[in-house]
Design brief:
Three copies of one chain form a homotrimer.
Chain A lengths: L21 H4 L1 H12 L4 E5 L8 E7 L2 E7 L5 E5 L14 E3 L4 E2 L6 E2 L5 E3 L18 E7 L2 E5 L7 H4 L16 E10 L3 H8 L5 H4 L1 H6 L6 E4 L4 E7 L22 H4 L1 E7 L3 E5 L4 E10 L2 E10 L11 H26 L14 H15 L1
Antiparallel strand pairs in A: 1-10, 2-3, 2-5, 3-4, 4-9, 6-7, 7-8, 9-10, 11-17, 12-13, 13-14, 14-15, 15-16, 16-17
Chain lengths: 372, 372, 372
């Protein structure tokens, strides 16, 4: 899925060019990104629907680290490194589930409270120097915005509230915290994560790559309201009462009490460094990007709907999922071609068109993050 | 398939030994070879039968670069890097085919003429600083000898005509430019490309490795006429009217108007750095070598016949292909054993026998290319 | 399978902690281990039952080197590098078998005596500088203890007799040289070889990981008699007349004339750097460890029985093999979790419990070997 944004004098930088090769292929720069960006920024890791009741958990891998996100007995969301403090064993293997009371290491049965404190360590009582009360799982910080759970494994993260201040309330009418997922697909894409961001940020490619999409939303009628910084995006028009689906019609209850203007638009926003958000009148599509290697990224895509839509006769989530899945795969394919080409010694940064101003803005934000 | 060449006082260097280990196993030396040899020398990439009419193309990967070889509207053969000048995307995915008029990038639909000049770039008219006429695909040089198409991706290549001057006319009677392929097999061999060259250059191994071949051509009766430099080889006798086939008989029309002497010989020549040429009275076998890693090489083998042979009742290409395929696989197997052994710390350069003088000459030429 | 050893004041070092991360994940340290340990110490490679008659051979890979272990015509066991002295080809491909008189290189048919001396090299007679009598396969040293064949590829190995002096006679009553194998299983384990050693060295994990085993042998009643140095271990009690089998009963003739005490015990010993020995009244289990990468180890497991047990009606080897195979896989699984966890930046050396004193002793021995 992709958005194209109107060229305006204040956002398009004439002469903007694509990134130099090394940012897209170098293992050293990839490692630096993992540290400077993915281990330092707020990374979108889950939606609250996955952590509904105490003990509910999901595993996520951020910057190479296995993390346990768990709803505590206190109602808060905790994030622990998945590493026992005894011999260092990974404790939890399941992708998601619910702990019944405690987190137990399967190797020697050390157990921890949901908030990370050591509960029990067999045969360790009375061992000289063993400080039971001082031992806890190592943890990372957590923040929640519009129902999306972000983690930060950095030592001195920017406070979550100040990082997300510009977005407070902006999407309130879409009821994101209440939504539930009808479908999830994980895609393995042989492309650098930044090429996926750039691809999401323009619809210049839509006529050639997405002929069906181009019929539902005119690729050259996009408008962006966030054109610089970590949050970028805007909207494209769709037919009122319609949606981006195989049928062209809405396939579920509206996400919220949207006004007429909002009902005739799809909103596309990217959130540096790993969230792509697509808000349709009847469904939200959430992409999170998980870089694996310079030329390998896992993209998780979830389709969220109003909780009251489920079980209704007019609920047809596959109408949205099927269409978007085709569009996604079209995008991954050209991103993979893009990756193959930029690895050539014949590649040099090429000229962005005015219709790629948001892709250029993403590149600027990325370079700022790397040079901070 | 392999040739052994007569030991003569002027070609056999007493005391010659095999290459030191590092040339056969080191990733650093492999990378250096890619730059100093495969990105600097004339590499055999195709036969003209694959590029018959305007728009016909093949993809090749040379020194890690994807190249498009295409017959132009002007009748010439062009070689373009497979990289769009806009975002750097790879444009062409098919191994071979025919462009209908232009080369189009699938990502944003920029299009190029067959000779590489930019034809169209949507929405780029009027963009400040965009020089439509100055944009073209990056290209590499092309040369054709005896119907074989060579490419050179170096910055300052030796002119093709002077590089191939020693061979002009030498094989004219075999009609190589007219021949057509009956069969192609790509082999993945877990051995360094130089071990394959050495293997092709001697028949000392034939009695043990190729018992069937040794019956058709006496392994100890070879004569070489090119014994130093980038072109090496000579001939071995076969029974007049016979050939290197399963039946032992010729399996197709003669390649040309060969004299009696030529009808009783098979000629084996190697052409540094990637062509092995075997000329039988009734068929030509063309091996091209494509190094992938220190211990990984793809070998493409094509069997070419006289164009008038096809469709005749006495045309039995499988008689040649079947025999050679068995022989090829016997060779690849011992080359793979060779690769495994030279990686041992017990390996040290061993003594070449007088029957391996051409293998030793290849090693010398290789070392010259690396030390130039 | 795993042993836990009683905490005694003289063996448990209060404050002992697990190894720092780099020893378990670093490719550089892995390479150093291969040189300082596996290419310098006596490595257990085979049991004499595999090398019964002259010409019988097995292939083994030690420190990255393919070695041929062969029973010579003189009755001795020889160990040759699997590398021909001519072009360096690997000669032998089969995992085991019997040479008929000589070792022949398949490439150019050079042949060698079983003791390694060159027997024949075609067409090399009279070549200037070729010293037929001075050429032999490169070889490594061999030592045999209790029927187990050890090799040492180092330049100046500690003499075998002095290295194994502490163990002479210790296991004589179990008749190890006479035993025969009923079963072999090779396991690929995604864990560092040292985590497998540590796992074998304690039964602190048994209640949680091996519930069936814990019923047959009480995890907290182990005693160790070797608690420091390259040989470590002791015994755990079992029911007299019982064994570690699915049925809980002995499944074969006793290995030797064991006394009542020995019949009620299972002995677990580790032998630095690659042998784990488990002696039950009715069978011996021999693990050899073959490190492949920092996080990859092949474990070969053989089950040995008294030669007179084979063919008897009361011989039920699967009763032992089946039970141990399940236990092995439980161990490999937690070792793999352990490996995953210690690779985290959240890992730091954790406190060993008193029940892990032998694991701590292994770590000390390992660090001595690396720092010598």
């Amino acid at each position: 899925m992709a958005a194209e944004f109107r060229n305006t004098a204040d956002t398009y930088t004439a002469g903007a060019r694509t990134l130099p090769q090394r940012y897209l292929t170098s293992p050293e720069i990839f490692a630096a990104e993992q540290q400077r960006i993915f281990a330092a920024r707020w990374v979108c890791a889950a939606h609250v629907h996955e952590l509904a009741e105490p003990g509910a958990f999901v595993l996520r891998e951020v910057a190479g680290e296995s993390l346990i996100l768990v709803r505590g007995a206190d109602g808060g969301v905790h994030c622990h490194y998945n590493v026992c403090r005894h011999r260092g064993s990974r404790m939890c293997e399941r992708e998601s589930g619910r702990f019944t009371g405690a987190i137990r290491c399967p190797y020697h049965s050390w157990t921890y409270e949901l908030d990370g404190r050591l509960r029990a360590a067999p045969h360790m009582d009375g061992v000289p120097g063993f400080d039971h009360a001082g031992i806890a799982l190592r943890s990372a910080q957590v923040g929640i915005w519009e129902g999306l759970v972000f983690v930060n494994v950095g030592r001195e993260p920017t406070p979550f509230e100040s990082a997300f201040a510009p977005l407070l309330g902006k999407f309130a009418r879409w009821n994101l915290p209440l939504l539930r997922a009808a479908r999830r697909i994980d895609y393995d894409v042989a492309a650098n994560w930044k090429l996926l961001f750039e691809n999401f940020s323009e619809c210049y490619h839509c006529p050639g790559v997405h002929p069906a999409l181009a019929k539902l939303t005119p690729y050259n009628k996009a408008e962006n309201d966030l054109s610089e910084g970590p949050f970028l995006g805007g909207f494209m028009p769709i037919r009122s009462g319609g949606s981006i689906t195989t049928s062209g019609n809405a396939c579920a209850l509206p996400l919220g009490a949207l006004d007429a203007e909002e009902q005739g638009r799809v909103y596309y926003y990217s959130n540096f460094p790993n969230l792509l958000l697509s808000l349709h009148p009847d469904y939200a599509m959430v992409h999170t990007l998980w870089p694996r290697a310079p030329a390998q990224t896992t993209v998780r895509c979830e389709w969220l709907f109003h909780p009251d839509a489920f079980g209704r006769a007019d609920f047809r989530p596959d109408d949205a999922v099927g269409f978007c899945d085709v569009t996604n795969r079209q995008d991954w394919h050209v991103c993979e071609l893009n990756q193959q080409g930029v690895a050539s010694r014949a590649y040099e940064p090429g000229p962005y068109s005015p219709r790629e101003s948001i892709a250029a803005a993403f590149d600027r934000e990325y370079l700022r993050a790397m040079c901070d």
